[in-house]
Design a protein that fits this description.
Oligomer: heterotrimer
Helix content of chain A: over 70%
Shape of chain A: globular
Largest sheet of chain B: none
Number of helices of chain A: 9
Order of helices and strands of chain B: HHHHHHHHH
Largest interface: A-C, 57 and 39 residues
Chains: A mainly alpha, B mainly alpha, C mainly alpha
Distance between the termini of chain A: 42 Å
Largest sheet of chain A: none
Strand content of chain B: under 5%
Number of helices of chain B: 9
Radius of gyration of chain B: 19 Å
Number of domains of chain B: 1
Shape of chain B: elongated
Radius of gyration of chain A: 20 Å
Number of strands of chain B: 0
C-alpha cells in the first residue's frame, strides 16, 4: 500500500520536531488568550446562577480540565496502540508526552470537582459514586502507565508493555462519559450533548465554550512542547540532531 | 484444536498446582490470618457504629468490609504464581511458540488459577462470615457475589501479572493499576452483602458485578495474551 | 472589585479552584520547558565533541 508522503513525514522525528516548534507558539498564544477572555467573561461578566449563586463559576474550569484529561488519555491510548501495532517510535513518544499532562489535568478535575462539591452537594467526595470513582481510576491509569514504564530499563520494552496497559484502560473513558446516564450519581447530566440544544443560558454558554476551546489549545501546546523534549531525548547522538544544534548555534 | 489446548493447559496447571501446595495454600492462609485477626484489633464498646444500634451491627458491617478486602488481597497474592513460574523455567516461550492459540492457553491458565485459588476462597469466606456474626442470608450472598466476582478478579490480577512478568518490583503497578480496577467489584460486592444483611434485594449490585465479570472475561485475556507476548520479546 | 473577590461568600471555593488549575498549567509549562532545555544542552555538548553519530532509527511503515 503506497502511503502519501505527508504520512511518512509524521514518522520522522526531525520533521515533527520542526513542525512542533513552529506550531506550538501559535497554539500557546491562542490558548492563553482564549482562557484569559473566557475567565474574564466567566468570572466578571456572566450573571450568577439562580440556584448556586457565584460558586457555579467553577463550571468554567472543572469540566474543561476533566475533558482535557479524557482527551489526553484517548490520545495516549491511540498513539500507544499505533506505536505498538506499526512499530512507530514517534507514536510512543506522543503517548509518553500526553501522560503527565493528562494526569495533572485529571488531578485538577478531581480537586476542582471536590471544591465545587462541598458547597453544592455538601461533601468533598463520595466513595461509590460512579463518575468520581472512574475519574479517579483514570488518574491511576495515567500514573500506572508512567510507573510501569519506569520499571523497565530498555525504552523499547517500556514502550510496548505500557502500550498494552494504555490500551486496556481506554474502556474507562466512555464509562466516565456515560456514567451520569447509566447510574444515579451526584453529578449532573451532560451539559452539552450533540443532539439537544444546550441547557445553559447563552451568557454562560459563551464563556463555557471559549474555555473549552482555550483549554484544548493549551493542552496541545503543552503536548507539543513536551513532545519536543521527548524527541530530543530519544534522538540523542543522531546526525540530524547534531546538525540541528550546530545549525542553530552558528 | 483450540478446545483441546484449553483442556490440556488446564489439566497441566492443575497438576502443577497440586504439586506446589504452598503456592495456593499461602494466599488462603493469608486470608485466614487477616480475616481472623481483625476482631482482635477491635474493642467491643467501639463496635456499635451508631448510638442505639447494638454492637452486632457494627461487627457485621466491619465484617463485610474486612472479608471483601481480605479476599481481594488474597487474590493479589496469587499473582506470582500465574506467569512467573512458567517464565522462569522457559516453558512460557514454548507455550507462546506452540501452534495452539495463545488465547486458549491463557483461558486455560486462568481457569486453573480460578479453580485453585478462588474456589477454596469462596468456600472459606462463609466460615469467617460466622466469625463476624453475619446472617445466613448475608453469608449466602457473600459466597454468591464472590462466585460472580472472582473470575473478574482473576482476569484483572492476571493482566497485572502479565504486564510485570519480567519486572523487578511489580508493586508499583499492582498498587496503581490492579487495585483501582478491582475497586468497583469491591464496592458493589460489599453493597450486595450489606443489602442481603438488611434482607433487601441485592439485584442491582449483582447485575453490575456480573457485567464486570462478563466484560473482564471476554476482553481481558486478549490484553493478557498481548502482554505475555510483549514480555517475552 | 471586592464583590468579585468575595463571590457572594463562596470566594475561597471559586478562587482556590481557579488557583489550582492555574498552578497545574504552570507546572506543565515549566516541566516541559525544563526538559527541553536540558535535552538541548545535552545535545549541544554531544555535538561539540565531534563524536561519531549513530544512524537515526527509521520508523518502519
Amino acid at each position: 500500500m503506497k502511503l502519501p508522503l505527508w504520512f511518512h513525514r509524521f514518522g520522522s522525528p526531525p520533521y515533527v520536531y520542526g513542525l512542533a516548534n513552529s506550531v506550538a507558539p501559535w497554539l500557546g498564544g491562542a490558548g492563553l488568550i482564549l482562557v484569559a477572555i473566557g475567565s474574564y467573561l466567566g468570572l466578571a461578566v456572566a450573571p450568577p446562577d439562580y440556584l448556586q449563586g457565584d460558586v457555579y463559576r467553577i463550571i468554567y474550569i472543572h469540566p474543561q480540565t476533566a475533558y482535557v484529561g479524557m482527551m489526553a488519555y484517548t490520545l495516549m491510548a491511540v498513539s500507544a496502540g499505533i506505536g505498538f501495532i506499526w512499530h512507530i517510535k514517534l507514536a510512543h513518544a506522543v503517548a509518553v508526552s500526553a501522560a503527565p499532562i493528562g494526569a495533572s489535568f485529571t488531578f485538577c478535575a478531581l480537586v476542582t470537582g471536590a471544591i465545587w462539591g462541598r458547597p453544592t452537594w455538601g461533601t468533598y467526595w463520595e466513595w461509590g459514586d460512579p463518575r468520581l470513582m472512574f475519574e479517579l481510576l483514570l488518574l491511576f491509569l495515567f500514573l500506572g502507565y508512567l510507573a510501569l514504564r519506569a520499571s523497565f530499563d530498555e525504552r523499547d520494552k517500556a514502550d510496548r508493555v505500557s502500550a498494552v496497559l494504555a490500551f486496556v484502560g481506554i474502556v474507562n473513558v466512555p464509562i466516565i462519559h456515560y456514567s451520569v446516564l447509566w447510574w444515579n450519581t451526584l453529578h449532573q447530566g451532560p451539559t452539552i450533548s450533540r443532539l439537544d440544544a444546550p441547557a445553559m443560558d447563552t451568557a454562560m454558554l459563551v464563556p463555557f465554550l471559549i474555555m473549552v476551546a482555550g483549554f484544548t489549545a493549551v493542552f496541545y501546546w503543552l503536548l507539543l512542547r513536551r513532545l519536543q523534549g521527548e524527541i530530543l531525548e530519544r534522538e540523542q547522538g543522531t546526525r540530524w540532531l547534531r546538525d540541528f544544534v550546530r545549525g542553530t548555534a552558528a | 484444536m483450540a478446545g483441546s489446548a484449553f483442556l490440556s493447559i488446564l489439566r497441566r496447571d492443575l497438576r502443577l498446582a497440586f504439586r506446589r501446595v504452598s503456592e495456593w495454600a499461602n494466599p488462603l492462609l493469608f486470608f485466614t490470618a487477616v480475616a481472623g485477626m481483625f476482631p482482635l484489633a477491635l474493642s467491643p464498646d467501639r463496635l456499635a457504629m451508631s448510638p442505639g444500634e447494638g454492637e452486632l451491627y457494627g461487627l457485621q458491617s466491619l465484617g463485610i468490609g474486612v472479608l471483601w478486602m481480605a479476599a481481594l488481597l488474597s487474590s493479589l497474592m496469587g499473582l506470582d504464581r500465574l506467569f512467573l513460574n512458567d517464565a522462569d523455567d522457559g516453558s512460557m516461550e514454548q507455550l507462546v511458540l506452540s501452534p495452539a492459540p495463545l488465547l486458549s492457553i491463557v483461558y486455560g491458565k486462568l481457569a486453573a488459577h480460578w479453580l485453585v485459588s478462588a474456589l477454596p476462597l469462596i468456600l472459606l469466606v462463609p466460615v469467617f462470615g460466622l466469625v463476624y456474626q453475619l446472617t445466613a442470608d448475608a453469608i449466602a450472598m457473600l459466597a454468591f457475589a464472590l462466585f460472580l466476582a472472582t473470575p473478574a478478579l482473576t482476569v484483572l490480577v492476571a493482566i497485572g501479572a502479565a504486564l510485570t512478568v519480567n519486572v523487578r518490583s511489580a508493586a508499583a503497578v499492582i498498587g496503581l493499576v490492579v487495585l483501582p480496577l478491582c475497586a468497583p467489584i469491591l464496592i458493589y460486592g460489599a453493597r450486595a452483602t450489606a443489602l442481603a444483611l438488611d434482607a433487601e434485594s441485592a439485584a442491582q449490585p449483582l447485575y453490575l458485578i456480573a457485567s464486570f465479570t462478563f466484560l473482564a472475561v471476554s476482553l481481558g485475556p486478549i490484553a493478557i495474551a498481548a502482554a505475555v507476548r510483549v514480555g517475552l520479546e | 472589585m471586592s464583590e468579585l473577590f468575595a463571590m457572594g461568600g463562596d470566594g475561597p471555593y471559586v478562587w482556590s479552584a481557579y488557583g489550582i488549575t492555574l498552578a497545574v498549567v504552570i507546572w506543565n509549562v515549566w516541566s516541559a520547558r525544563a526538559r527541553l532545555k536540558r535535552n538541548l544542552r545535552a545535545a549541544e555538548s554531544v555535538s561539540a565533541t565531534d563524536e561519531p553519530t549513530r544512524r537515526a532509527k527509521v520508523s518502519q511503515l
